[in-house]
Write a structure and sequence with these properties.
Blueprint (H helix, E strand, L loop, with lengths): L6 E5 L3 H12 L3 E5 L5 H18 L5 H10 E3 L11 E4 L5 H14 L5 E4 L6 H5 L8 E6 L8 E6 L5 H13 L3 E6 L6 H4 L1 H13 L4 H12 L5 H8 L1 H14 L10 H8 L29 H20 L5 H12 L5 H8 L1 H12 L13 H6 L1
Parallel strand pairs: 1-2, 1-4, 2-3, 4-5, 5-6, 7-8
Antiparallel strand pairs: 6-7
Helix pairs in contact: 2-3, 8-13, 9-13, 11-12, 13-15, 13-16
Bound molecules: nicotinamide-adenine-dinucleotide (NAD).
Length: 382
Amino acid sequence: MTEPIDTIAVIGAGVMGRGIAHLMARGGKQTILYDAAAGMAEKAKMSILAEVDQRIARGKANEAELSACTSNITIVGNLHDLASADLVVEAIIETLEAKTALFRSLETVCSDRCILATNTSSLSVTDIAKVLRKPQRFAGLHFFNPATMMKLVEVVAGPSTESGTTKRLVNLSHDLGRTAVEVRDSPGFLVNRCARPFYGEALKMLEDGVADAATIDACLKLEGGFPLGPFELIDLVGVDIHLNATRAVWNAFGQAPRFTPSPLLEDLVKQGKLGRKTNAGFFAYPREATAPLSKQSCHPDIFLRVASMLANEAAFAFQEGLAPAEGINTALKLGLNFKHGPHDLAKMIGVPAIIDTLERYAKNDSSGRYTICTALAEFADQ
Ligand SMILES: NC(=O)c1ccc[n+]([C@@H]2O[C@H](COP(=O)([O-])OP(=O)(O)OC[C@H]3O[C@@H](n4cnc5c(N)ncnc54)[C@H](O)[C@@H]3O)[C@@H](O)[C@H]2O)c1
């Protein structure tokens, strides 16, 4: 039996903090919400209640959720008011300086049995842990946006994180109706790293003139069952935000060629075409309807190239011991709403076809982009 987590403090009441607080309160947890900006936590609680109200009106939520959020969320104005927490989830700005300063202060406020967790997407859990007196009770607890909807939580262990800490976080995630995937700390964790080829290989095909963005999106949706194509997704998230995420993983992996940001992204950002938010990105918005594509008219390599690179990257993560094949598969399915995870894709296409595809493209690319992971067959066999 692991010690339960009943009282949770959420620090940072922005996009993620308010979603996490909502999820906790809805799940019956005493939730303490704190933000350094005056009035921000109060505003967040009001917006949570207004959102639940709207969902009740649409028949998507019930009065019990409203009453849980009303009574379980307590706003505090001082870090010392978090002393009773069993867990603190940090969701503040994404800088190492701000996060390490905050966790240093938290160590002086929270009890020794309180777990300290970061929701960082791109910083190293290991680097944050370095400043702590007791890194054994520190971990990453990576929720996806919107936290109330997305089923996946990555539970990230740094080198000093105790197994009791990750176990308690996994149990909490299950209590909240989430699927927890345990992952060893590494840049981009599982989802943000292993998803790179979905975008990167599509961008490379666009650069190479294989097809236009709409056709590549359509073929991947038709043949791979992806809910959105890579170009639609980049436009939705924001070309600038996507480029920053790509650069972060690329730099963290020593600028490995397979993660190189596409010049097409750089060009769009320079032109201010940032996607849906600017009404222009890979597509112009509102988008014009186009005639549907048939499977027969898809270039056979579009799906094969993307799926092969997805399976190959997942095999690298598996080889590095980040998580078992099943965990990587689940993380990508739930974190990106993919119909098939990279392990499913490896089984569907088969290792010989993946090797053949990567070898064919490696002939015209000496950068190492298409280097085949030596653990590919072992990954696929799991
Ligand atoms: N937005 C996403 O899609 C997403 C997804 C997963 C993880 N994340 C991660 O979650 C974290 C928060 O991201 P966000 O998008 O919610 O940011 P945000 O900018 O919407 O909110 C950050 C909040 O933190 C507050 N804050 C800043 N410094 C603080 C401090 N020292 N103490 C207390 N409060 C402070 C700010 O006032 C702000 O309200 C980041 O680490 C980010 O990488 C974001």
